[in-house]
Amino acid sequence: MTEVASFATGCIVTQDWKSLCIGKVLPFFEVKVVDPSSGQLLGTDEPGEICLRSPTTMIGYANNSAATSSMIDAEGWVHTGDYGYYDSQGLIYLTDRIKDLIKTKSSFQVQPSELEDLLLQHPHVAEAVVIGVCQDDFEEMPRAFVVLEPKLPSNLRSSAVYRVPDFKQLTGGVWVVEEIPKNSTGKPMKRQLKAGQVTQLASCC
Fold it and tell me: Where does the record place the AMP-binding enzyme C-terminal domain (predicted)?
C-alpha cells in the first residue's frame, strides 16, 4: 500500500504454497493483528486488522489530520484496513477488507471470502461474490451473487455454504447473474452489487 512506501512482506512461492498467504514481514517492518472493534492485540491464528510499523511509513496525509489519525495511531502503527492473521511460522494471510465484513445480528461478523470459497466448491458455480445487504441500521444479511456454469441446474442446496452456523447463512438470498461487474484489475465491484446495479437472472437455493 502507498502509505507504507515499500513492500512490507515477501515470500518465495513453492508448489505447496497456501492460498491467501502473502509471506513473512520483511526487515525494518513490524506487524501485529488487532481486534478491529476494540483494538485488543490478537495472537496466532486469530483474525483481525493487520497493522504495520516501519521507518519507511508515511508521516501523514498532507493537510488532513483527521485522515492521518484514522490511519496511523499514536504509536506509529499503520492500520491497513486488511483483515487477516499470522500462523505459528510467522506467515501472514489476507482474507478480506474490513470494510467488506458483514455485520450480522448479535454483533457477529462474517467474512465474505469464507462463504465465497464454500460456494466455489460447488461444481455448478463458476464465480461467486458475497456482500452484506442492510436489514436495518445495525444489521446486514449475507447475499451471494453467483455465475453458474453453462447448462447446469441452479440448485445449490447441497453446497457446503448451507452447513455454516445460522448467523453466516445467506439470509439475503442467492442471486444468479450473467456476470459479476469487475474493475480494470479484475476485482469485483461490490459497490455496484450493493447498489443493485446488476440484473438478476434467477434466485436459487
Answer: 114-187
